[in-house]
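Researcher: Here's a chain I'd like modeled. Treat it as a single chain, no partners, no ligands.
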Amino acid sequence: MSLRIQDLETNTPSAIFDPAISPAINAILQRALSGEELDSEDACALFATQGAEAQAVLDCADAVRKKRVGDVGTFVVTRNINFTNVCYMGCRFCNFAKEKGDKEAEFLTVEQVADRAEEAWQRGATEVCIQGGLHPDIDADYYRELIVAVKKRVPDIHIHAFSPFEIWYGCKKARLEPEVFLAELKQLGLGSMPGTAAEILDTEIRKKLTKNKLTTEEWVRIIKAAHSVGVPTTSTIMYGHVDQPIHWANHLKLLRDIQRETGGFTEFVPLGFIHYETPLYLDNPDQVRPGPTQDEHFKMHAIARLMLQGYIDNIQASWVKMGPEVAAKMLRSGANDLGGTLMNESISRAAGATHGQEVFPEDMVANIQAAGLNAVQRNTRYEVVESFSQPQAPRFIAIQGVA
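Model: Modeled as a single isolated chain. Structure tokens:
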């Protein structure tokens, strides 16, 4: 191993580094182990590491993960409900959207959404994640009525719904400020919001991805509005296309700054770009990368852990994007959560993802335990639903595929 972490039970873990690791990287990792904040320049230096230095970054993130959240890996039993695939925003990284008259167009009624939520509850879900395209026929009342219908049918299920782009759209339709619209939705039963539509929070990159239709400033405004009225959100990044490590580093720093101000993020979810069927890639194969490398997946989760520690301490690995086995390996590279069982997932699948639509709770438990962690089923708020403990595996395990 290139890094041996000692004294993990103390508040100030120390490290003995391989002599091949440069003094500059050594210093950054020592600061991270001590709980100091890293800046964008530090993060870029870590993203550039290779070989023994890259492995040291992962080992350091594993130590910080243990320090912040213990030897626990979590998952949530949830169902994704995409109520419409009709959308006219023209995001070039997306192959999910259909036109209104397309034979594959779908637009669920609120009762159909409620039916799916009830089915999820009967199968043990504690949460439904509800999102959809920006259909031209949607008005603000649809968002309101959808929450009412689900809560009437399944009063105790947690509704995790509506991206910042959808809230932006609903506010336009309702002619309301985000704080007012979100407070209404919360009153009706909205529990939390996905922090999707973030992509990369950089203007030049967003112009290439979405023509900047939802600006960085608007995304931040809506996220802060949600937090201000007591609606927590996740936070995300979508990486591996026309972006570079400096954009990743600045994105992480911005999320940390928001969390410092609001405290409203529950987790950070890195989402690798799925390129296969997207116009962004198919129209520009020489200019657009075909998603992140496995090395970049590992580094993203590890460096997020180091940059966000003490601010956003739940780092999720998306099995939909990377596959369950790779996602489970992230649990020893900084991540502590494998996300949801899903039951349905159509957005990544439409872009060409090949890892299926559902994993079962027993699969989540097995993958977490294979990483040497204690498995816990959580709810949306990261409260324990059920624990599945086991004897701990050796503290140091090799992470494959990092060059």
